[in-house]
Design brief:
ten-stranded mixed sheet, 12 strands
């Protein structure tokens, strides 16, 4: 590997603004130090401190008597030099260029640019030097090209200037709001709705001052907890546009965020219609009073509502700056209207107002109105349900988070202050109106008390008015009957009407802005691919004009339908569902204990957030139970949809963190429990190499580990450590992603080793975690063993010996075509590249078709040159030389088909289990698990075991009894009594020819020659060895004859793997056994467990 030693590599790692450091430069001339007088002052060492940027760029201190050494140091950013010139990378001279902490190093100091995401709007991302660049030895004699830091050394400007300019270009002209105009104003306007002016007095009349204040405080508790949770999430990292959707999706993931984001945006769109209709109804009431109706009340509401929405849309589309100015004006009007009410309470009441129940502040009225007086059909929760929507709107500021200067500061400060101010105002209005106005009044100035009349504790009677007839007949005035109490009490009634207009229009405007912003953020994340059209933004503020139009259409539709009384509870529940999920997000992130959960806003508690989430869910049912059910059903449906689609996003959600914590806890809990045979499952290490290169081996293993056991695809990189580690690290994520994409429930692991056996040995010992450790090694049969080098055979057999040493079972899989399809994949890659080049060339030709004459031809050649289309040249030593013959193509086709054979559904057939040796039951368990899978469920098990010819029936009954106790269904049992007879001569001859090249034939030589041959070829099969294991060799050949006779038509053969005793069986003889045993058969699994029970018939 070579390192790029250009100046950029070194100098880009320096701070982007050198004014961040104040460096005291010292003289490093050691010779001078050595010859210094003994009486000189102690040496001064280099000091580096983080200084204020207003200080000079460098502060230089000198050793006593050494100032002349630094006279030519330029403090304006020019290169620092002493009497000898030096190169910027030369760290051997007595003074050198000031880099990180004054040293010539590639290590970079902490900078925010290293931590940004790619494509960040707040500035460009800069890559820090990699660990490899810092750790590896530097390449020598690499020319240094001028970089940004060189320009600093030459006084040409700071490296950070380019970044700053790019940042200004990205954000140039964009309107950003502070916490007052962006959050506080919006939240206050949205919380102070029409409820404040026309329904709060009725709530006080029904619930009384005491319970009325309690209702306000209970509503505030819900919103305050939600506000605290919002503040915590908003200060746990950079917040972009999207408001509630962004906060929930980045905390709980796309499933929750995508479901709530859609209904939250829809709720805001419909809320526009609700607020506009409230405004239109007030206007229509004024038209009725002046007898100026246009058509009829319903159609007048539609006409006025439509005109209003068009005007509000125009304000919104004009830009956020205009919308913000309109909000400020509306807030001023609203504050004047509220102040007008409080002023009116102290203005002495006249007879007309007294007849309508207003007597200024009276202790008797306060005492009378303090307790509840619920009318028929009303109660605490019904009144609470009516008031609660008035407390919502706390997310109005968060919903435009993308338009805030500093969302992390603005959202907590503005939201919590808005909740405090609006709560104080609600409580103040409730207490004041409850202390000034009686519950029932006739409105007649003649209803005064008669002398001698018994008042029975009535406050109005004590103040000279008799409203007793209101107990028998309906009255039109008082807290319980008149929704215009605040207009009556206020100093100037029309200002209250202006306040109603301001409250409704400001809420409508906030919702009209919020809905498109949230919807745009949702569409940008591409969670719902069909909605990608609405992700596009326009102008300097990236305005979602398409979202505005959609919101306008939805609002107009609901205004024209004019059935908002039905839809209103659903909308309130949509908002509450958002609040519930925000609270749950805060709890979940805290509970997951992720190190990444570090909110700057510390005033929150995870259990309080959980309580808030439960409270929001409860309030949903209190407001309207059927609307709550509908909300949950819609959210559940969207959650299932997003989960099914599995959007390709990774936001580091708390769901991921909690999954990790749960997995870790479960893994640790497993270690406290001893393994039990009933819970045994094959947990496999599969030597696939790259998982895509041997898909058939992975498929058959996955068939019996999926959803039941551990499966680890392993690859060993053999070669120079440096290159192997680099190749291994670069492919880890890609290969794990391939497993996920192909829905293979397996892990990928890789090691770099000096030899294949060492790598597998490391994997066998170190793979797994706690009880989730591999107990079975799965490997492919080495098809080319006859042509393979000796070391490969020794490694292959050594791996089997190592597995048995570690008490790990072994499964060797053989299929006729082999497993490795890497050459086919290479061909596919080459074809894909050729196709891309062809398409690029076609596009170039198409672009030049419109050009005429030689100019077009020249343009074609120019573009072709850019595409680097050249005459193909054959590659040396390539496994893909040229287009091969048709025969090779057919072989590749067969190989591809064979590699996919275990992906297909296996038809009706059999799995033949040759359970010749008791290995603990693994040879029987694996085929049984296979029959449970959908692809293998039509295959029946046939069991073949060895036995004595004269006891076939008895042994068959005994085996059937054992299998029934194991509760393993089987189609048939075959007792093979002639396993140990000699094979026929033709079969034996094939075996002898197979091992002939590997025999030593020492018996034909004299003793000295034989000993010499043994020393020179210790790996060869000796005659003595062959004679010693002749019976075993006969058995392998005979077994192949029996397999050919009984299992030739099986879908799969599972066969006991013969064990080669270490030091007794040579590698080539063992490979010959495996070859003759599995020759010319359907797919074969050679299985040998670790001789510990994996089956039991005990409960």
């Amino acid at each position: 590997m070579s390192l790029n030693n250009s100046s950029n590599v070194f100098l880009d790692s320096a701070p982007s603004n050198t004014s961040r450091f104040q460096v005291n430069v010292i003289n490093e001339n050691q010779e001078g130090s050595a010859t210094a007088d003994d009486n000189t002052a102690p040496p001064h060492y280099e000091e580096t401190s983080f200084g204020d940027e207003t200080h000079s760029r460098f502060r230089i201190s000198f050793r006593p008597g050494s100032q002349e050494c630094y006279e030519n140091f330029l403090q304006n950013g020019e290169t620092a030099k002493t009497d000898a010139s030096f190169h910027v990378y030369d760290s051997h001279t007595n003074t050198y260029y000031l880099q990180t902490f004054g040293h010539n190093t590639m290590d970079a100091v902490p900078k925010i640019e290293y931590y940004r995401n790619t494509g960040s709007v707040s500035g460009p991302k800069v890559n820090r030097p990699s660990l490899l660049e810092i750790h590896e030895q530097l390449a020598k004699n690499v020319a240094a090209a001028p970089g940004p830091a060189d320009r600093v050394a030459n006084g040409e400007g700071m490296p950070g200037e380019e970044l700053a300019e790019n940042k200004e270009e990205d954000q140039g002209g964009a309107v950003k709001f502070g916490w007052v105009k962006g959050v506080l104003v919006r939240c206050m306007l949205n919380i102070w709705g029409v409820m404040l002016f026309i329904r709060l007095s009725w709530i006080v009349g029904e619930a009384g001052i005491g319970l009325g204040v309690l209702i306000i405080l209970l509503s505030t508790m819900v919103t305050s907890i939600t506000g605290l949770s919002t503040s915590a999430i908003a200060t746990n990292g950079f917040v972009r546009g999207g408001g509630a959707y962004y906060l929930i999706s980045r905390s709980l993931g796309p499933e929750f965020g995508g479901s709530i984001g859609l209904i939250f945006a829809f709720a805001n769109a419909v809320a526009v219609a609700m607020y506009v209709v409230g405004f239109a109804e007030t206007v229509v009431d004024l038209l009725k009073e002046s007898d100026s109706m246009m058509v009829d009340p319903t159609n007048d509401i539609r006409i006025i509502g439509s005109i209003t929405v068009v005007i509000l849309l125009g304000i919104s589309v004009a830009g956020m700056e205009w919308e913000a100015k309109a909000q400020v004006i509306l807030l001023i009007i609203l504050l004047i209207a509220i102040a007008n009410f409080f002023i009116g309470t102290v203005i002495p009441s006249n007879n007309e107002k007294k007849s309508r129940g207003f007597f200024n502040y009276q202790a008797s009225i306060f005492a009378e109105n303090f307790g509840p007086s619920f009318t028929k059909g009303e109660g605490f929760f019904s009144v609470f349900a009516i008031f609660f929507p008035a407390a919502t709107g706390i997310l109005a500021g968060a919903n435009i988070s993308g338009d805030l200067e500093d969302p992390q500061d603005a959202i907590p400060r503005g939201t919590m202050l808005a909740i405090l101010i609006t709560t104080v105002a609600y409580i103040g209005v409730a207490i004041c109106v409850g202390a000034c106005v009686v519950r029932d009044a006739t409105g007649s100035i003649n209803d005064t008390i008669i002398s001698g009349m018994n008042c029975n504790g009535s406050a109005a009677c004590g103040l000279g008015y008799d409203f007793s007839r209101c107990h028998h007949e309906p009255c039109q005035y008082g807290l319980m009957n008149n929704f215009q109490v605040m207009s009556m009490v206020s100093g100037f009634g029309p200002l209250i009407t202006a306040g109603i207009f301001s409250a409704t229009l400001s809420s409508a405007l906030a919702s009209l802005v919020s809905a498109p912003k949230v919807f745009q953020a949702l569409c940008k994340d591409n969670i719902y691919k069909a909605l990608q059209f609405f992700a596009k933004g326009y102008g300097k503020n990236n305005e979602p004009l398409r979202g505005y139009v959609l919101t306008f259409v939805i609002a107009m539709a609901f205004i024209l339908i004019a059935e908002l009384n039905t839809i209103a509870p659903i909308i309130s529940n949509f908002f509450l569902a958002s609040y519930a999920l925000i609270n749950f997000s805060c709890f979940h992130a805290s509970y997951a204990k992720s190190p990444g959960w570090r909110p700057a806003y510390g005033i929150y508690n995870m259990w309080v957030s959980l309580f808030g989430a439960i409270l929001c869910c409860a309030v949903m049912f209190v407001i309207n139970w059927w609307a709550a059910v509908i909300t949950y059903v819609i959210e559940f449906f969207l959650y299932i949809y997003v989960t099914y689609k599995k959007p390709d996003v990774n936001w580091g959600s708390s769901t991921q963190a909690l999954s990790y914590v749960s997995a870790l806890d479960n893994a640790l809990e497993l270690t406290t429990v001893e393994d039990h045979v009933k819970n045994f499952r094959p947990q496999c290490i599969v030597l696939t190499g790259g998982p895509m290169t041997r898909p058939a081996l992975l498929d058959i293993t996955h068939a019996f580990t999926k959803n039941s056991g551990l499966c680890i695809c392993c690859e060993v990189f053999v070669g120079p450590r440096k290159l192997c580690v680099k190749e291994m690290n670069s492919g880890m994520a890609k290969k794990q992603a391939w497993l996920i994409k192909n829905k293979v429930k397996a892990f990928y692991a890789a090691v770099a080793a000096d030899c294949f056996r060492d790598g597998v040995r490391s994997l066998l010992q170190a793979s797994g975690l706690g009880r989730m450790k591999p107990n079975t090694l799965v490997m492919g049969y080495k098809k080319n063993w006859r042509k393979a080098p000796l070391t490969e055979i020794e490694n292959y057999l050594g791996i089997i010996h190592d597995a048995f040493d570690f008490e790990i079972g072994v499964v060797i899989v053989r299929i006729s075509q082999g497993f490795d399809i890497s050459q086919v994949l290479q061909v596919q890659d080459e074809l894909e590249k050729l196709e891309q080049e062809r398409l690029a060339l076609e596009a170039t030709i198409k672009d030049n078709e419109c050009e005429e004459g030689s100019g077009g031809i020249r343009g074609l050649f120019k573009k072709a040159g850019k595409l680097n289309i050249t005459k193909p040249t054959p590659k040396k030593d390539s496994s893909m030389n040229t287009i091969q013959s048709m025969h090779v193509g057919e072989l590749n086709q067969k190989l591809v088909e064979a590699s996919a054979q275990f992906k297909k559904k296996q038809g009706k057939g059999t799995i033949d289990v040759w359970w010749l040796f008791d290995d603990g039951g693994l040879t029987l368990l694996i085929p049984y698990i296979l029959t449970l899978r959908k692809k293998w469920k039509d295959c029946k098990l046939r069991i073949f075991v060895g036995g004595k010819i004269n006891r076939i029936e008895e042994e068959k009954i005994a085996m059937a009894s054992l299998l029934s106790k194991f509760r393993i269904k089987f189609a048939d049992i075959h007792i093979i009594g002639d396993i140990n007879i000699k094979p026929n001569k033709e079969s034996w001859k094939v075996f002898e020819e197979m091992i002939e090249p590997y025999r030593l034939h020492e018996s034909c030589k004299d003793l000295t020659t034989a000993e010499k041959l043994k020393r020179e070829n210790p790996w060869k099969i000796t005659d003595a060895e062959l004679d010693a294991v002749k019976e075993k060799s006969y058995r392998q050949v005979r077994l192949n004859e029996l397999l050919q006779e009984h299992s030739r038509a099986a879908n799969l053969i599972v066969l006991s793997l013969p064990v080669a005793r270490k030091g007794s069986i040579s590698d080539w003889l063992y490979m010959a056994w495996l070859e003759i045993l599995t020759k010319n058969l359907p797919p074969v699994l050679l299985v040998r467990g670790n001789h510990k029970n994996v089956l039991t018939f005990y409960s």
